[in-house]
Amino acid sequence: MFDVLRQRWLALPGNLRGSLLIILSTLVATVMVSFIKVLGERMSVVQILFLRQLMVLAVLAPGVARDFPGVFRTQHGKLHGLRICVSAIAMVTGFTAFVHLPLAEATAIGFARTLFTTVLAVLILHESVGPRRWSATVLGFIGVLVIVQPGPEGVNYYALLAILSALLVALLMIFLRTLSQVDRPITIMTYQAVFLTVVMAGPAAYYWVTPSLDDLILVAGAGGLMSLVQWLNIKAYAVGEAAAIAPMDYFRLFFATLIGVWFFAEVPTVWTFLGAVIILASSAYTMRRNAVRKSAAPSQPDNT
Q1: How many CA atoms lie within 13 A of 130 on its CB side?
Q2: Host domain of residue 155
Q3: For residue 297, what pLDDT band results from cuts at 50, 70 and 90?
Q4: In the chain, at which residue ranges do the beta strands (DSSP E only) sit?
């Protein structure tokens, strides 16, 4: 039976298999965030992240042990250090936003990372961006404002944290572009796992609350689901084209809305839906234009 199902799966087109794997990864990622949202009611985000990093370390430990000390060999130690610091802030701000905001709202704002990536690619990597992609980027940020609804009474503090996290995640993508060209994936993952755990240890100890058995089960589940998300994404991009399967990540908003309504009684507002549509449309256009630009001849100017 298993062999029959495997053969049917392998008979599917690569892009279809990749798309299905990405959709599954968005469901798993949303469930993981939901675990953290529940845990956030009883313990600090830094403690949750520290315990989750311990789970990630446990998964990576066999590979690190086989290649020690070569796994730490790099010529970009300072960039790794900067990436770890930025990752710590991005995770704390992002997961704090997920704990305190409705899942759909925090997820929609998180998609602004694609828009921030365009801006940072120009500022840091000196990439060329044409007027149409700039227009899509500006439109996407308008979508963020529609969700956040700034007014005379101020802006929701946790929405600002979600925006900051999206910016920092975009910055991490820029760092990863550089590191992935010179370091092995296992080296990048090991630096992240080991030193991020060290960074989180101090704040976690300060805010420590003795977890219950249920809490430990949820933390273990979150760590396991995170590893599963990474595996699904790797498998998806191994069989499918990035331009074809990347938009499937938007299913994350569908699952966030569904789980938010079902488990947390969170009914998204009209403004959340409207802003999300604007952000998703502009992000999809930006990803599409990025794919077209990469496939064009190097000498061809980018006017989009």
Answers
A1: 12
A2: 17-295
A3: very low
A4: none
